[in-house]
Write a structure and sequence with these properties.
The structure is a homohexamer. The first copy, chain A, is mostly helical. Chain A is 77% helix and 0% strand. The first copy, chain A, has six helices and no strands. The termini of chain A are close together. Chains in contact: A-B, A-C, A-D, A-E, A-F, B-C, B-D, B-E, B-F, C-D, C-E, C-F, D-E, D-F, E-F.
């Protein structure tokens, strides 16, 4: 049942590897900058992942939502805390966010089922 | 010099009061829901303001950015922490966010100058 | 052939039920507010569904488009009227809306085929 | 007090005239197509203006909102009906629409004051 | 392996044909205007396709990206040049564009494999 | 009459200088990356400025439009060529781009008047 998560992970890894082969310094630097944005700084890395999830939700990008949910769970955010962040995104972004809320809630359930060995 | 902040505050208050006079239950309930989204829940109110600021920045809304900066400062976030959140917004949202980063940084400076009595 | 519509309906119902189990007052209230926005008010419910469809089209959300087409057809809008609304969305939103126009026209055809028992 | 409306009208007219001088068939045709989208068709012109307003509000364009409010008032929509359309836009588009709701409500008031000779 | 391209092409053709059957002058004219925008003018057609690709990437529309990549390759742009345009889109639009960059790079690879008879 | 351009330039310079004082490596690196994206690469710098303008227009950012028009003029693009790029943006992005087209055309006129010493 978590095949959706695995498909996402393998496609993401495969294409990131493919992009890493491209000889373009700007693209490489952008990926580095993107990774660095979520490292501990004035804000801790855990908080930044929640910012990334909220930004992804209001911009309505399912792949970005999935990535940041995986990171948020790994960083130790509880489901209730993630739902609370998604509620901020819902109120800011409106009902057009609802299909992405459905996707996000399904992803959270898949991640938890996977962690419980219930895959 | 903080006349920009005062203009923002007075326009916002005046029009929110005007909207409150409108006899439309849906609009009233939306404003209540909006206010409630930033109250203490599974996440504390301080974290939620930072989520609101990041969402406002990637959606490129100066008025929303100004409102959430005022709230973030009141909630106790330092400049360095707010810059770190804005950096996440910049990386997620791209260079199209830069004009709003300029606005945000100016707003932070105005808020601090105001607090220092330097208005 | 209308399996796409049925998949959409069953996923939407399943995930809305799942979200309804989440203990978050803000999310529950948002869903109520969303439902209420399309009820008879100063504008009749039929007109509001067309507004919802047009908003969904310019914001380029296929799930939202499908939902509002189902509602528009149920409310009694003809295909010609729905196309005319989609044309407004196309002109306002530009050629980036075209993939969603394709999706919308396909959905209308699926809904009509379904109603004709031609599934 | 309606100087904001007059500024909008004169800038819009001046720049549309300037654009009309540009020797570019595509731009000319786009403006014609835009005008034609709001003419009586399967839907009446009045309904289409409300669609245009809702689309402008969720896409958060103040100039477009002002233009369509002027058209909606001329087409005979009441304030209560326009507020009801703006509520749909608010729920679909979220709190990020609120600054544009403030602007829209102010514009409606300016248009009504102007019509009442109270300028 | 290029079944994704073929599915895209056949769905696009099928639905464009279906839309062409709709008796709506505005929609027909919009499609004509869209086609005309990429013809030789003050700018040559090749440059315009690259503009179309960049616009599609920052607006995050995979179908539009696929269409313009097909056109860009046909117009003679090399992979390195297309990557350079996508880098502009990435910097302007931010990390939210990354899932679409993955899609775009995969599409370029599929188009090249197809041309090499390696399908 | 080109006071609008001068205001834009001085605000942009002042706030970029202010942002440069902020001790945040990520923000500094983003600005560098942004500058680098428009340098000669597989594509020449002139072409990239036109891509930047088109992206700015469909994303509806007046400050970004102004910046790229200044760069496009400096890079040697003629008015007719810039209009042709803006037409692509108009068709891709729809009538919601029109207020930004007005702004862009005014900016082009201001830049040309300035160059002619007619300020």
């Amino acid at each position: 049942m978590s095949s959706r998560l695995n498909e996402f992970r393998s496609y993401r890894t495969r294409m990131n590897d493919r992009i890493a082969q491209i000889d373009h310094l700007g693209i490489k630097r952008f990926f580095n900058l993107d990774g660095a944005a979520y490292k501990e700084g004035a804000l801790d890395a855990k908080t930044k992942e929640l910012l990334g999830l909220t930004a992804s939700a209001v911009l309505r990008c399912n792949d970005c939502i999935d990535y940041h949910i995986l990171q948020c769970v790994e960083a130790g955010w509880t489901d209730a805390e993630i739902y609370d962040a998604l509620n901020v995104a819902l109120v800011v972004g409106g009902s057009i966010v609802i299909p992405h809320l459905r996707h996000a809630v399904e992803t959270i359930d898949l991640v938890r089922a996977e962690a419980a060995g219930d895959t």
